[in-house]
Each structure stands twice: as C-alpha cells, then as structure tokens.
Specification:
Mean pLDDT of chain A: 83
Shape of chain A: globular
Strand content of chain A: under 5%
CATH topology of the largest domain in chain A: MetI-like fold
Low-confidence stretches of chain A: 266-277
CATH architecture of the largest domain in chain A: Orthogonal Bundle
Order of helices and strands of chain A: HHHEHHHHHHHHHEHHHHHEEHHHHHH
Structural class of chain A: mainly alpha
Radius of gyration of chain A: 25 Å
Radius of gyration of chain B: 25 Å
Number of strands of chain A: 4
Low-confidence stretches of chain B: none
CATH topology of the largest domain in chain B: Rossmann fold
Strand order of the largest sheet of chain A: 1-2
CATH superfamily of the largest domain in chain B: P-loop containing nucleotide triphosphate hydrolases
Strand content of chain B: 25-35%
Mean pLDDT of chain B: 89
Number of helices of chain B: 8
Oligomer: heterodimer
Shape of chain B: elongated
Order of helices and strands of chain B: EEEHEEEHHHEHEHEEHHEEEEEEEEEEE
C-alpha cells in the first residue's frame, strides 16, 4: 500500500470516528446555544437560574464523592485480605468477588431491590422476626443509591489494591524491616504510601462511574435527582433544550474528571531503581484458629457481596402471585422460564439485545482495531487524535451520548452527515458501538503496544504483504487483547440501560427496558429471569476475559 | 564482476535531524560487509533503508542492477535477522522457518522439505516442532537465521544479531552464524557496534560516524591506515597528541629545548596540512616503547596505570608535556609511579598526523 493510500485510509478512519464520537457532541453543544439559528445563552441562563438544576448538580457531586469513600472502605480491606494472606478457597473467591464489575448495573440494582427492598428477603425477615405490620424500611433516596454504588464499585478498589500489592518489591519491605520497622510501621509507612497512586486511580474511576451512574438513581432515587436522571426526565418531558444544556454540563464535569485522571495515572511511582524485584510473599497463616478466622472472614464477605445475585436467582423461580405475606417464597418452580421461552413477545427483547450487542461488538471491534493499529503505526498527531477519539466515549456518561445521538440523528440533512436514525432499528446498535469503542480500541492499543514492531517487519522481509501480515501475525498475537475487549464490549451492550432508555422503540426494546416494564407490572419473577440471563451471559464473557487476559 | 549491491548517495533525516548523509557503498557478490559505528551513527537506519522499512529522502539502492528503492520490503526478497530475533511466538520452529515460503505460495510438501533442508545448516535438525519460547537464546538466533535463509533470499541483512546474547555464548554463535553464511555463499550486510565482531566476520568494514561514512576497507586497512582521527580512535586503541608539522612527515611535540619535554618524530601525514600548521598525531600502543628517560626525542613521563592482559601489558603514561599515551611493554616494564621515557618504535604501525580539529578527542 502506498503512502497516499495509507493517508487516505487514516483520514477515512478519523472521519468515521469523528462522525460517530465527536460530531453528535458538537451538534448538541451548538443546538444548546441556539445554533445554527440565532445564538442564545437563554437555556444556559435558565439552567443557572433554576434551583433544582443546581441541586441535581450538587447531588451528583456529593453522591459520587461519598461513593468513593464507601467503595474504598469495602474494597481496600478486601484487597489486602485477598492479596496479603492465604486461606482455603482464596483463589476462587478472589475471582468471584470481582464479578459485580462485569454485571450490568441494572441487574445489580434489581438484585439489591429483591434482597433489601421493601418486599425483599431481608426486610420480610426483619418484619417476621419483629412481628411488624408493615415493612421496616423503604429502600429509596440517597442512602439506597449509595449502598448500591458501594456494593458494585468496591471492585475498582479491590482490583487496584491487589494489582498494586503484587507490584510492590519485597526487598523494599525487607529493607524497612532491616531498619527496625515492625509490621504496623511497615504497613503504614511503606505499603500504604506505595499503594497511593493505585488508590488515586481507583478513586477517580469510582468517581467517574458514579457520576455517570443512571440505573441506581433512576430506580431508587424517586424525587432525589442527580444529573443523569435529570437529563432523562427533561428529555421525557419534552424540554429538549434544557436536556441539551444539562448534557453539556455533565459532559464538562466528566471531562474535568478525565483530565484529573490523566494527571494521576496509577502505577507510575511503584518501582525505583529499574530492577523489578519479586512480589512480597503472602502471609502463610499457620495457627489453625487464625487460619480459620481469615477463611471465615473472606468467605463471609464474599457471600455478603454475592448475596444479591443469589437472591435474583431465587426470585426467578418464584411463580407470579404466589409470594404474598410469607417470609420466604412458598413455591419455587420454572414457570417463569417456561413463560419466557413460550411467549414470543417476551422472547423478543432477548433476541433484540443479542443481535444488537453482537452487531455493535463486531463493529466496535473492526473500527477499534483499525484505529488502534493506525494510531500505533503512524503515531504523531494522527495517532494522538485517534487515541483521543477512542477514549472519549469512555470518559463521558452514557446519558450524554444518548442525548447527543438523539440530537444529531433526528434530522434529515445528509449533506451535513445527519440522517434520521432515531426510531429506526439502527440507532441502538450504533449507540452501543460508540460506547463499546473504548473497550475494543483501548485493549487493541494495549496489545499492539506490547507487540514487538519488528515482528511485522520480519513478516514483511519474508515476503508477506499487508493483509497476510495482519492475518498471520498481528491478529493471532492480539487474540487475547481482542477477545478481552470484545467480551467486555458485548457485556456492556447486552446489559445497556442508560442509552437504551433514551433511544429505544417498542420494536427494538432490549432486555433492560423489558426488565423495567416487568417490574412496573409487578412481574418480579420474569424481571428476575431476564436478570439471570444477563448475569449468566455476562459472567461467562467475563470469565473468558479473565482467562484470555492471563494467557 | 560488477558490485552486487550499490548504495548511491543515500540521505535520510527524521524530523529535521539528518541521520544519514550521502552514503555511497558497493558490496561484491558473496561478500560480508559490516556496518560498524557507535550508537547513533546511523548504521541501523542504513540497514533499514536497504531492507525497505524506511525510504531514503534521496539516493538509490541497486541490487544486481535493479533499482529496488521504490519496492516495499516484501517485494525485495532479502532475508533479515533482527536484533531481538522477532520470532513469531505463536508458531513452532518449523512454522517460523516456513513462513517466508508460505508468503511466496510454496506448496506444503515443498515447504516442509525446505525446512528439513535449512535446519541442519544452522545445526538445528530435529527442532521442527519445538516452541520458540522453549529453546535457548543461541538457538533462537539460529532459528532466526534459518527463517531468513529458507526463502533463498538475494541478500542477507543482520541487525546486531549477537547483542542479545550472553558474552559466553556470543563468540560461539558468531562463529556459527559466520560459518552458515559462508556455507550458503550469500551476500550479507551485518550491523554491529563491536569492533572485534566486525573484524571477525567482515570481509570489509564500513565505519559510520554521525551519519557519515568515515572509511570502508578491510579490517587491516582500517587498523593500519585510518583515514581520520575518528577511525584511528574508534578502531583499536590509540593515543592522540598535539603537535605541529615542522617538515614534510615530521612533527614536533612539546618543547624540545628541555630534554624529556619534547621530541621530533617521523609521521605519515593524512589529509591537507601545510608545514607549520598544528596537527594531532595518533599513536598505536604497539608503535611506542618504554625506554630510559632523559634522551633526545624521548618524551618523559610517569606511569599512572599498568593493565596486565596476559599476552600484552599496557602502561598508561602521563607525559611531562601535555597529554597521556598508552604504551605496550614487557610485563615487568615499569612500576606504577616510575619515571620513564616514551620513544617511537621504528616499525609499523606508523604514527599518523591528522589536521588539528578544534578539540582533541579524549
């Protein structure tokens, strides 16, 4: 391929990515400013003058900050226990408690609802034991949101802590010991400061995720609005201009977060002196009582953390209308599964989600891989631009993209690159694709950066042309990275709720929307079945991801 | 016979930085040419231009009278051995070796028979099904050579092929690579920054410095007849002293009015210098000897260091005039701190005088 063809290829890639990622955001910003008509700051001024908008903004911020603290309080000790000590079942449990990160947020939310909600297992249990007339509590408002956030986002702290502990050079701790520092002192003066960058990374990731969180505030929030739910409410109420202004505001907040994250990339200061030593060995717990205690603690925490998902499984076996006032469901059978399998209208969302997620994943894979390869090979400004375009959808909340796509693709102006896609079956796969791009693109980037560039050169010197080089050398070597990215992309698309709720039509309704309407119809068993389906597919893809990543 | 490979006035720069300037070189058929130079001299860039991974800004590359400059690497039919081998980790030894044949559409049967033909050339018969991660560094190196040889390339390019090996393995692998290349009789361009390796494997050596070709010649020519101060200093050991040309091929060093602090020595003048001008003379340690001090045309000094190397002993002498020299002497020649005299041996290699640069290299 000549240089000219390469340049044309690079330019075409940039154009497609800009059209998918940057252009909708730009149009949203312009329309929020009244353009292309008369420039006007009126919607922004109206936004600034409304106390409920300020409240939503403030609530988004403090909920996110509080989520960071709570998730850290759960995740860091868990990471220390699972990386620092050894007890029976450590490996299996260690993998299991990372699972919630892979589950669609909506599944976590309804699982939580079934366990701790007004008519959940725990509240019924308390009600029965204390002989109360009504449920002892209602799960709603900021407390419920925070609980769900802590419950699902501790995984970031847990994983980052474990990864950072492995990277610590054992000789650093030995040096501290030889200088007279005891275990406590070593922990507070050496281990913890070395974990600093990783914890900062986890904190920002948690902050960004809760800023973008939609499912928990939507289901549990009630009158308590955060920015994401405020945007969707404005959109549903037909206040399009206000929704656009809110979207722009949330996007700005997220970009600020991304900027902060770039400045505090984790893992930069972990090793000094160039030579990587060996990781500290796990503390072998010799005394049987201590060993048993650690095992019990580990197991107890793991069960507590996985309990909501077990609950979901149980609820999926409760036939409709059979569980009324009892503490535990009186009947368990597979009628919900049977009804789903035999009712085409109920099967429809499953098929919808499957084909849309598959199409989006394939698209994101091809586009992400091409962009990553071009970025790595060409480098320079073009490389940076492609990398940024691949990363933007990751930094921005799903709600922002949903509104941006809804704005850009509801007008028929082909000469401006705008088509009417809203209301067609194409808008959701497209939205999923955009949201999945960072997953496939960034994993391809990471894989390509690890690959020795002389491998492709070696193939070229042996007479292999461009396609053969990609097919026989690059793709086989990138297989783990590609599979990892693709499985995460598939999980995200399959369980998507936040963009779907803005962009779905009745014919293309995905599983998440059907879960919501089943819940509205008090059809909890069917909602749970959908949840279990999502959980199973996601867990499979996640485990595949873990295996490939290790390979 | 006409040259097989011709590099004609090649130029290359990366972002305003000139990496190669006007490089012209001929390589004869079956010859092994070594590109030698310090890091950053442009030798690897030159090899990558020949291979086709980079395009020259100016100049041409001709192979057997064909201009290959516009061809992509895969169309050149050259074999290349990479610094870190670049073996395909997902393929077996046989898979690696037959890769180039596969690219050329050679049928499976022929590929396999070629693999069994090539592996013995590098002493690896029976290694077909081994994973490339399982074999030693030296064996990986030889698989890389076998892979490059299998498609029967016109030219072999080797980019610092030994730099990734333990010193203990390096000499043996060097011999094996050299023998394999000779056995096949292929024309080769071999890049290294080690002079000993260059002298051992190269029929001729091209010495590069800051993107310029300093000198091309046989190892003997480079060592005995360096054409520049850089070549004299980079190849082998040499001392440099400042002086001035007092007559054709005679240089005055230091101040002759005081015995021991100056001398007039016969030299071979290289380059444009007029009588009366300042020069720098380059002296090989074996061209000097330790003698009694306080004689005419003998430079007095103090022994700073004695380096015993078994077959020879080097003495580093700080001269009474400005400068230091390295002298080969008997193992019991002098003690550290002794006052000695340094005289020019009346034999090869001759002292060579070069036009004085702005600064004398250390």
């Amino acid at each position: 391929m000549s240089r000219r063809q390469q340049s044309i290829g690079g330019a075409a890639l940039v154009l497609v990515l800009v059209w998918l990622v940057g252009y909708p955001l730009l149009i949203t910003l312009l329309e929020a400013l009244g353009l292309p008509g008369a420039f006007s700051l009126a919607p922004f001024l109206e936004f600034a003058g409304r106390p409920d908008e300020w409240r939503a903004l403030w609530q988004s911020l403090w909920i996110s900050a509080a989520s960071v603290v709570l998730a850290g309080l759960v995740g860091v000790p868990l990471g220390l226990i699972f990386e620092g000590t050894d007890f029976p079942g450590r490996r299996t449990l260690g993998a299991l408690i990372a699972l919630p990160v892979a589950l669609p947020p909506l599944v976590g939310v309804i699982a939580f609802l079934f366990l701790y909600g007004e008519s959940g297992f725990v509240s019924r249990g308390v009600q029965t034991v204390l002989g109360l007339e009504k449920a002892p509590w209602r799960l709603s408002g900021p407390v419920a949101i925070l609980l769900v956030h802590a419950y699902s986002m501790y995984v970031y702290f847990y994983l980052f802590t474990r990864a950072a502990l492995v990277r610590i050079d054992a000789s650093v701790l030995e040096a501290a010991a030889s200088l007279g520092a005891g275990p406590r002192r070593r922990f507070f003066r050496v281990t913890l400061p070395l974990l600093g960058p990783a914890l900062a990374g986890a904190a920002l990731l948690t902050f960004m995720t809760s800023l973008a969180s939609f499912s928990a505030p939507y289901i549990f929030g009630g009158g308590f609005r955060v920015m994401t739910t405020q945007i969707v409410a404005s959109k549903l109420n037909g206040q399009i201009a206000m929704a656009q202004v809110e979207t722009v505001t949330l996007a700005l907040l997220a970009f600020l977060g991304l900027w902060a994250m770039r400045r505090a990339e984790p893992g930069r200061t972990a090793v000094v002196g160039g030579v990587r030593g060996i990781a500290p060995i796990r503390r072998q717990l010799r005394r049987p009582a201590v060993r048993l205690g650690a095992a019990a603690l580990g197991w107890g925490l793991a069960v507590l953390l996985l309990l909501p998902h077990l609950t979901l499984l149980v609820i999926s076996f409760v036939p409709p209308g059979t569980w009324t006032t009892e503490a535990v469901p009186p009947i368990l059978d597979i009628s919900n599964y049977r009804s789903l399998a035999s009712t085409p209208e109920r099967l429809r969302p499953v098929l919808n989600s499957l084909w849309m997620a598959t199409a989006a994943t394939l698209g994101a894979l091809v586009l992400g891989l091409s962009a990553a390869r071009t970025s790595v090979k060409r480098g320079g400004r073009l490389g940076d631009l492609l990398e940024t375009l691949l990363s933007v959808p990751w930094a921005l909340p799903g709600t922002v993209f949903a509104i941006a796509l809804a704005t850009a693709f509801s007008v028929n102006r082909p000469e401006l690159g705008r088509l009417v896609l809203v209301g067609t079956p194409w808008i959701l796969p497209m939205a999923y694709l955009v949201r999945s791009l960072p997953l496939t693109g960034r994993s391809s980037l990471a894989g390509l950066r690890q690959m020795d560039p002389s491998l492709e050169e070696a193939a070229a010197s042996l007479g292999a042309g461009r396609l053969r080089r990609i097919w026989r050398v690059t793709l086989p070597l990138l297989r783990p990275a590609i599979l990892a990215g693709a499985s995460l992309a598939f999980i995200t698309a399959l369980g998507d709720f936040v963009t779907s709720i803005v962009l779905y039509t009745y014919d293309t309704r995905p599983i998440s929307i059907e879960i919501l309407s089943s819940l509205r119809l008090q059809d909890t068993g069917v909602a749970a079945v959908y949840g279990v389906l999502l959980m199973l597919v996601s867990a499979t893809a996640f485990l595949l991801w873990g295996r490939e990543r290790k390979a | 016979m006409p040259p097989f490979l011709i590099l004609d006035r090649l130029q290359k720069s990366f972002a305003d930085h000139m990496v190669l300037r006007e490089i012209s070189l001929d390589v004869e058929p079956g010859e092994v040419l070594v590109l030698l130079g310090p890091s950053g001299s442009g030798k690897t860039t030159l090899l990558r231009l020949i291979a086709g991974f980079e395009q020259p800004d100016e100049g041409q590359i001709l192979v057997a009278d064909e201009d290959v400059t516009p061809l992509p690497p895969e169309k050149r039919n050259f074999g290349m051995v990479f610094q870190h081998y670049a073996l395909f980790p997902h393929l077996s030894v046989a898979g690696n070796v037959s890769f180039g044949l596969e690219s050329r559409g050679v049928p499976r049967e022929r590929r396999l028979s070629r693999v069994t033909e090539v592996l013995p050339l590098v002493d690896l018969e029976g290694f077909e099904d081994r994973r490339v991660q399982e074999i030693s560094g030296g064996q990986q190196q030889r698989v890389a050579l076998a892979r490059a040889l299998a498609p029967d390339p016109r030219l072999m390019l080797l980019d610092e092929p030994l730099s990734n090996l333990d010193p203990s393995l390096r000499e043996r692998t060097r011999r094996e690579l050299k023998n394999a290349i000779r056995r096949v009789g292929i024309t080769a361009v071999w890049v290294t920054h080690e002079q000993e390796e260059a002298f051992d494997v190269g029929d001729r050596v091209a010495l590069l410095n800051e993107g310029r070709l300093e000198q091309v010649g046989t190892p003997e020519e480079l060592y005995l007849e360096p054409q520049s101060l850089f070549v004299a200093g980079f190849v082998g050991r040499a001392s440099a002293l400042k002086g001035s040309l007092v007559a054709e091929n005679r240089v005055r060093l230091g101040d002759e009015r005081f015995v021991g602090q100056g001398a007039t020595w016969p030299v071979l003048t290289v380059g444009e210098v007029a009588v009366g001008e300042d020069v720098v003379i380059s002296l090989r340690p074996e061209g000097l000897e330790l003698v009694e001090a306080e004689q005419p045309d003998v430079l007095g000094g103090e022994v700073l260091e004695r380096q015993y190397r078994g077959e020879v002993t080097y003495y580093r002498v700080c001269l009474e005039m400005e400068g230091e020299v390295l002298v080969v002497g008997a193992s019991d020649g002098a003690e550290i701190g002794a006052q000695v005299g340094v005289a020019l041996r009346q034999s090869e290699p001759a002292a060579r005088a070069f036009p004085s640069p702005d600064e004398v290299p250390a």
